[in-house]
Design a protein that fits this description.
The protein has 389 residues and is an alpha/beta fold. It is built from 14 helices and 14 strands. The protein has a seven-stranded mixed β-sheet with strand order 2-1-3-4-5-13-14, with helices on both faces. Helix 5 (148-163) crosses helix 8. The chain is globular, with a radius of gyration of 21 Å. The structure holds nicotinamide-adenine-dinucleotide.
């Protein structure tokens, strides 16, 4: 029988369950490109419930306990006395979400001799030291595509919000004002701008598709060039690297995984090479940009805005400079954790567990590391290394 440790974000401050704004979520038929939705044999929650927080338990408890397994759920993940560190020592499986990551470092892996499977309930397994997982033959799996569209929608929202100066304008009315001059002094139309994505994978491509109707000029860079038919359909300009793209765009939206090739990519030199008054949206990973270079560029006006939902570490310290930098539109790490996304990544987590516990193969597209090497989506999108740790 297996012991499964699951690290989830805390319940809402007002208690659990919340009073839901809606009664249902739409039923989605499938993902673009033909990948099938999660297909667990059973589901013990109603899609639309808050299953990503501690009391939601990803809807896994009855399934696991009925089969004789042990489930420990906690949000206490930092420091040697944390519940995570205590429980990991004899765990077979660790489940974690990128929004409240259980950083699975080489040291933690060394202290977890039974650990065989690390599941990311979501997308992005950079909180796992992939080299250490490879060396120990730990399988790393994530629920590929589960929240890609959620993030794409968020990135489009943040792009519009920055360019149109939405958040400060809202702040004026919330504070009782009617300051049209102050609100519009930094507001522009997106139409006609050059907008580029760093990486045109599932999320980056969905962002391009959603932005195409806005009458913008679209750019992208990726390790793998998209088919000509897609480039022509969306009117895309391909750039061989981020440097070429950054200087050609007014807005850059980052959608690459964090790995050694992308860590620190947007440093002071790259940001300085952009057009004055550019915007950066980053819903990928914080360490792809240089934290302090972003703050300095916002202060100097080199960047007109920076928005995103990814930080390092998570949660960030109370005095993290992105909380107070001018013209920032930061939120906690929420873009991929909507109730709609949770329904999919919780179902996908159960699908992965069902397969692994029964000794069946995990879907190839869910794999990041397997059999001691990068596998599945991991082999396509990552390079092994110590990024983020
Ligand atoms: P994906 O695997 O479909 O796409 C990743 C793309 O990045 C691939 O096309 C790959 O070729 C490209 N790439 C990798 N290294 C590159 C490099 N050095 N230069 C250019 N391109 C490179 O993944 P996805 O579903 O689109 O997700 C992308 C990332 O977004 C995830 O790895 C994760 O870090 C992040 N993400 C964030 C959230 C959130 O809630 N904020 C949710 C999901 C995913």
């Amino acid at each position: 029988m297996a012991k499964i440790v699951c690290v989830l974000f805390p319940d809402p401050a007002d208690g659990y369950p919340p009073r839901y704004a809606r009664d249902t979520i739409p039923v989605i038929d499938g993902y673009a490109g033909g990948q099938a939705l999660p297909r667990p044999e059973g589901l013990d929650f109603s899609p639309g419930e808050l299953v990503g927080s501690v009391s939601g338990e990803l809807g896994l408890r009855s399934f696991l306990e009925e089969h004789g397994h042990t489930l420990v759920v906690t949000s206490d993940k930092e420091g040697p006395d944390s519940v995570l560190d205590r429980e990991l020592s004899d765990a077979d499986v660790l489940i974690s979400q990128p929004f409240w990551p259980a950083y699975l470092t080489a040291e933690r892996i060394a202290r977890a001799p039974k650990l065989k499977l690390a599941i990311t309930a979501g997308i992005g397994s950079d909180h796992v030291d992939l080299n250490a997982a490879i060396a120990r033959d730990i399988t790393v799996a994530e629920v590929t595509y589960s929240n890609s569209i959620s993030v794409a929608e968020h990135a489009v929202m943040l792009t519009l919000s920055l360019v149109r100066n939405y958040l400060p304008s809202h702040q004026w009315v919330a504070e009782g004002g009617w300051n049209i001059g102050d609100s519009v002094a930094r507001a522009y139309d997106l139409e006609g701008m050059d907008v580029g994505v760093i990486a045109a994978g599932r999320i980056g491509q969905a962002v391009l598709r959603r932005l195409a109707p806005f009458g913008v000029k679209l750019h992208y860079t990726d390790k793998r060039r998209l088919p000509v038919a897609i480039e022509e359909e969306l009117g895309l300009t391909f750039h061989p690297d981020a440097r070429s793209l950054a200087r050609a765009c007014d807005v850059v939206s980052i959608h690459a995984p964090l790995h050694p090739e992308t860590e620190g990519l947007f440093d002071d030199a790259l940001i300085s090479s952009m057009r004055r008054g550019s915007y950066i949206v980053n819903c990928a990973r914080a360490q792809i940009v240089d934290r302090d270079a972003v703050v300095q560029a916002l202060q100097s006006g080199q960047l007109a805005g920076y928005a995103g939902d990814v930080w390092y570490p998570q949660p960030p310290e109370a005095d993290h400079p992105w909380r107070t930098a001018p013209h920032n539109g930061m939120t906690p790490h929420v873009s991929g954790a909507s109730l709609s996304a949770q329904a999919r990544y919780a179902a996908g987590t159960r699908e992965i567990l069902e397969a692994w516990l029964a000794g069946r193969p995990i879907r190839d597209e869910y794999l990041i590391v397997d059999g001691g090497h990068l596998a599945g989506t991991g082999a396509v999108s990552y390079t092994a290394g110590g990024a983020g740790h």
